[in-house]
Amino acid sequence: MTLPRLLLMRLLDLVVVLFFVSLIVFAMVRLIPGDAVAIMLGANTEVTPERIAELRSRIGLDLPMAEQYVRWLGKALHGDFGTSLWTGRPVIDEIALHVWPTLQLTLLSLVIGAGLAVPTGVLMARLRGRFADGALRIVTVAGLTIPSFWLGIVMILGLATFAPSLQMLGYVPFSEDPVGNLARLILPAVALGLPILANLSRLVRSAMLDALGQDYIRTARAKGASEASVLFKHALANALIPFVTSVGIMTGYLLGGAIVVEQVFAIPGLGRLILGAIAERNYPLLQATILVVTCGFVVVNFAVDLLYLAIDPRVRA
User: What residues of the chain score a pLDDT lower than 50?
Assistant: First the structure.
């Protein structure tokens, strides 16, 4: 199969996936218990049935579910995600205000997790059976079992005890204070990236050990290749194939985990926006935010899929 045909098929798959994602997101939001109009009106007992009907009509909740979905999807395809039920501002503007902290946190966590996983996994494979390998394996098991939010809470308690003068909570835009921006994101990024580091380093170790047992590695050593060349030129090249695939999956984990970690560290990202929208039954904001996060995950996996096609010619066979 030619590469253009493969790319076309992947794009068609992407369109189908995004359609079902929009359908599931819309249905999930509507299945949340509670009524948006009732929450908007609160404890106001003087509201007439006519006023309630007018509000439901303005929001579009009086229409059949299928018609609501078709209208919402049609507008969304043109970039119109509606307005927030509470602020009256365009939803897309609300998302734009909160997306950058989440992107920064996700990217920094990915750099910490995936960036350190390769040298850690190679080192563990190189030192297989030695004390350092055993110690690192224990650390990675701990990294897999400790929840990010729990680690974040421990970090905050530790700072409050031993360095109370340091301000590590909240968020400062990078354009205003680059140092303060990184200082406030580094701890949540470590809390979020540690499970990624543990998972991927174990994967790299396993893939490296498998590669080092192959015939072509023995051939390279028999021809006098240095140990560094064997590790990084021959073995690591093949070990990175499953690593690249897993990075796409881990990115989805990061986007999901950021929702909880943002709450712990008081970061005004998409996670806090989603939780607030759920509490307020702010349907337009909730639908659009979840759709944006999900589409981000799908697009990242699509990019990883293309990278996988590029680095492994066997997939195109």
Answer: none
